[in-house]
Amino acid sequence: TGVQTCALPISSTCCTEGVDASSCSGKVTDETCEISCVQGYTGDAVTKTCDSDGSFSGGSSSCIANACETGLPPHASIDTADCQGKTTAQTCTVGCSQGYTGDATIYVCGNLGAFSPSSGPSMGLDACSANECDATTLPTVPGINTANCLGTVTSQECTIECEPGYTAVGGSTATCSPSGGFDHSDRKSVV
Q1: Residue 168 and residue 77: Cα distance in Å, rounded?
Q2: For a Cys staple, 128 with which of 29, 100, 103, 141, CB 3.0–4.6 Å?
Q3: At 135, is the secondary structure helix, strand, or coil?
Q4: How far from chain centre, in Å, is Cα 121?
Q5: Which residues lie closer than 8 Å to 38 by C-beta, 6 or more apart?
Q6: Residue 1, Cβ density class (10 Å: 0-12 exposed, 13-18 middle, ≥19 buried)
Q7: Rounded CA gap, 60 and 127, in Å?
Q8: CA end-to-end span of the chain, whole Å?
Q9: What secondary structure does DSSP assign to 70-117, as a single string?
């Protein structure tokens, strides 16, 4: 039948995403080539042989995308949960955690196992601003002064004081929680 040039062994039945079959280009009858995984994918290399019918024979290749484990901003104000378990070439949204406000950024899992923004700069520590807590969630009993708590933002503490002539009973601090309200133990002021 003569010498045949084989077509590249990339089809739905042969190869998967992340496979490099470039060394098989232009192979003719009885020549061999190696199919391997591109950077960012893991799998065993497979040798293919160009057969006289113009097709390749040999084992099938399977390349699995590698997981990304680095490159995300590590600050509590930044939510990276959408990126858990992402692998090479997959994208995820990195935004602000509950209690913070800012713009989200799309990150992509690169072929070296690290995330990077798909466009623009990485989210820095100043990307998400802490939200101000709702002052109506502070105690409102007579003799309590919560003025120190006005303007308190997520994760900050403030001091609850007694008005002159009152004595403190209970906790003296309140913490602005990510939900937007203050966490505090009941503070009372008695005459």
Answers
A1: 34
A2: 100
A3: helix
A4: 15
A5: 18, 19, 20, 63, 111
A6: exposed
A7: 46
A8: 108
A9: B-S---TTEE-GGGTT-BTT-EEEEEEPTTEE---EEEEE-TTSBEEE
Strands (E), the chain: 19-20, 32-37, 41-42, 46-50, 56-57, 64-65, 78-79, 91-96, 100-101, 105-109, 115-117, 129-130, 144-145, 157-159, 161-162, 167-170, 173-176, 182-184, 187-190
pLDDT in tens, the chain (191 residues): 567 788 776 554 445 688 888 898 889 999 999 999 999 999 999 999 999 898 899 888 789 999 999 999 988 899 999 999 999 999 999 999 999 999 999 999 999 999 999 887 788 878 899 999 999 998 888 888 899 999 999 999 999 888 888 887 776 889 999 999 998 866 555 55
Residue with tokens 């070296």: 112
Residue found under tokens 């089809």: 11
Q: CA-based Rg of the chain, rounded to a whole angstrom?
A: 31
| Structure tokens given for 45 | 């290399």
The two tokens of residue 72 are 């995300």
